[in-house]
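User: Some background: our group keeps a shared notebook of sequences we're curious about, and every so often someone picks one and asks for a predicted structure to add to the entry. Today it's my turn. The entry only has the sequence so far, pasted here. Could you supply the structure so I can complete it?
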Amino acid sequence: MKEVILETNIKVYSVTELPDEFEKLAQSAISATSGAYAPYSKFRVGAAVLLENGVIVTGNNQENAAYPSGLCAERVALFYAGAEYPGVAVCAIAVAAQTEEGQVEMITPCGACRQVLLETEIRSRRPVKVLLCGLMQIYMIESAASLLPLSFSSFDTH
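Assistant: Of course. Here's the predicted structure to add to the notebook entry:
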């Protein structure tokens, strides 16, 4: 028998020590929560995508009474970026969430969003940094692939 240990390295920043190049991205994700349509869950999520050309595209969750018909903030932002800026690589994505009580301390992408992030990395052949924006701390993961170990990808279909 062989044992395999998978590790994920995460940098944890206080909100005041986040590198300058990511401050606007994090603030854009936090601001995007206000436009979420979340009448059922009351859990408003915002995402901001930083493109290789310097453009920041935002999205937020859009719920629907027919539950699976809604869409997460990360996919709204990533799909919009792909539609408006085809061929422009994604460098980073920031995600934030709010409840009726205020900003939450930790938010992570769901499995479907992790899969889309992985596909985004594969398509552009470059890692996508993931920033998880909490009230006091921001977690930075160097590659979306770290969020989905042993993932299924287009490489598995060959």
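Suggested note for the entry: The chain has a mean pLDDT of 94. The radius of gyration is 16 Å.
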